[in-house]
Write a structure and sequence with these properties.
The protein is of the alpha/beta class. It is built from 14 helices and 13 strands.
């Protein structure tokens, strides 16, 4: 059987032999006692990377977001976020369930909120209203198609947060994709936020885990919520070694994923029946619409599957393809040829 070109997500990556080697030889200890040297090394490395006092390794991006939001809020508070954000759509109502807070989603332009929109959404001090406490941004923005938050917009929003005494959270699941594309260091992004997360299990190719970085007092609270959520792990160094390997070795190659995504987007733009704006393919996510009498998103993905290509239908007409470290230039060439044949 020929290998499958799996473009459903950058979470499908498997650890490379070198990463597995690092995991095999990881020094471990009981991390609930704070005694796992590999977890400690990863946390120290990431605190440095983000220019924050502390960082905490957690099992998933969802836990990273939820523990951060809980640490930043009190029950009854409100969090401003974007309509397509992961915390609003794909975390099972976690903020309401776990923190007793409500989300107030605002519609962005390709996932990007304007500072004036946020200013208008901040609740006045009135006994009827919830207290607006946090502004949560996502960079890169997943459902907008890996769109990068422009730094000047983040700075404007952060200035508003300071002025109005709000806290800032960044879902940076794919922040390193933004970092390599813009050349803006991770710590410059992180400076604008009280809590910042990063996933190792997406484009960076590790099997498990995310990090939350922030100042000591806030990470102390995140640490407590990690324990509440059952995320205290014991000899976690085995998986943390994969994460450490990922952040040290797999960042510099991310531009290859971006080049593959752009090439795919440009080719799809040439196909009648596919609607895509390649200008908005800025990192490793390619979102497009099917506008064909022959296919909807689901039946086109079925046709691709028959040709050993996997993509994700995310609505009746929208499909997502995500390049990653298991996808080569040849795979993209093959995928483009199959599209051309299917639509010939
Ligand atoms: C932007 C974003 N944030 C958070 C997450 C959650 O990560 P996890 O699947 O590790 O919980 C994802 C997962 O796809 C994501 O895309």
């Amino acid at each position: 059987m020929s290998p499958v070109v799996d473009l459903r997500s950058d979470t499908v990556t498997k650890p490379s032999p070198a990463m597995r080697e690092a995991m095999t030889h990881a020094e471990v200890g009981d991390d609930v006692f704070g005694e796992d040297p590999t977890v400690n090394e990863l946390q120290f490395y990431c605190a440095e990377l983000f220019g924050k006092e502390r960082a905490l390794y957690v099992p998933s991006g969802t836990m990273a977001n939820q523990a951060s939001l809980n640490a930043l809020t009190q029950p009854g508070d409100e969090i401003l976020c974007e309509y397509g954000s992961h915390i609003f759509n794909y975390e099972c109502g976690g903020p309401a369930l776990l923190s007793g807070v409500q989300l107030h989603p605002l519609r962005g332009d390709h996932g990007i909120l304007h500072v004036d929109q946020i200013r208008q959404a901040i609740r006045p001090d009135n006994v009827h209203h919830p207290v607006t406490r946090v502004i949560a941004l996502e960079n890169t923005h997943n459902t907008a198609g890996g769109v990068i938050y422009p730094m000047e917009k983040i700075r404007e929003i952060a200035a508003l947060a300071r002025e109005t005494n709000l806290r800032m959270h960044l879902d940076g699941a794919r922040l390193m994709n933004a970092v390599v594309e813009t050349g803006i260091p991770a710590r410059d992004y992180a400076r604008c936020f009280d809590t910042v997360t990063l996933c190792f299990s997406k484009g960076l190719g590790a099997p498990v885990g995310s990090i939350v970085a922030g100042d000591s007092d806030i990470i102390e609270r995140v640490h407590r919520y990690r324990k509440v959520y059952g995320g205290g792990m014991r000899q976690a160094g085995i998986i943390a070694a994969g994460a450490l390997y990922a952040i040290q070795h797999n960042v510099d190659r991310l531009p290859e994923d971006h080049a593959n995504a752009r090439r795919l987007a440009r080719a799809l733009d040439e196909i009648p029946g596919i609607d895509i704006d390649p200008e908005w393919v800025q990192t490793n996510i390619v979102m497009f619409k099917v506008q064909s009498e022959r296919f909807n998103a689901s039946t086109l993905c079925d046709a691709l599957r028959e040709r050993d290509i996997l993509m994700l239908p995310i609505s009746d007409i929208r499909i997502r393809a995500v390049t990653n470290l298991m996808i080569s230039e040849q795979d993209i060439g093959y995928t483009i040829r199959q599209f051309e044949e299917i639509f010939a």
